[in-house]
# Entry
Amino acid sequence: MSLEIKNLHARIVSNGTEILRGLDLTIEKGKVHAIMGPNGSGKSTLSKVLGGHPDYEVTEGEVLLDGVSILGMAPDERSRAGIFLAFQYPMEIPGVSNANFLRAALQARLPEGEELEATDYYARLYEKMDMLEMDRKFTARSVNEGFSGGEKKRNEILQMLMLEPKYAILDETDSGLDIDALKIVSNGVNAMRSPERGFLVITHYQRLLDYIVPDVVHVLVGGRIVHTDGKELALELEAKGYDWLIPAAAAA
# Structure
């Protein structure tokens, strides 16, 4: 079972600019795939397209979640089907508490007529918050409102821990984190690694991959995957940059 991306082409709705140009990628359950690449290569666009962001239009290709196409699904349907997206810049939701937001998301995943048990819910929520060293006062605060960058990223990992998706897409989760917060967030991600779950980690820097060690590293240039190798590839990119891969991208 896998999240399979085949010949994916996508453009910006507002101006028609094509960003993804025939991207192929398969994310197997039980593995962590990392994507690196220069600015403007399409990394964040890929995450948003997978999440169903309305600013992007898929013009060709398909995305299959365990064999089922998701491109016709609304974002909430994709989430319930098992996709989780951690944003580079997490959104604020004023007036909705963290506890109520997560409770509603979990309730939406239950069969019709079944109710989430409050005692079990809060016990599990506090357990995950303790893992991420989050003060329990955050349960009553509006989602991400007034949070620091590091608090927002921890809050997104908290959401992932509670929702237990089949496939987690982490878009520059390390952005804005100091070293202590990076370790805590990485520990939360690593706690979710499982034969039943696949990860796509999008990052610019090797430092995140020191803590969330990938099974596979891909390089995205010009809207396509141009090179794939083991975890050592991230170190090579850190040392050499991307220029040596540009000819491969131009020839593709």
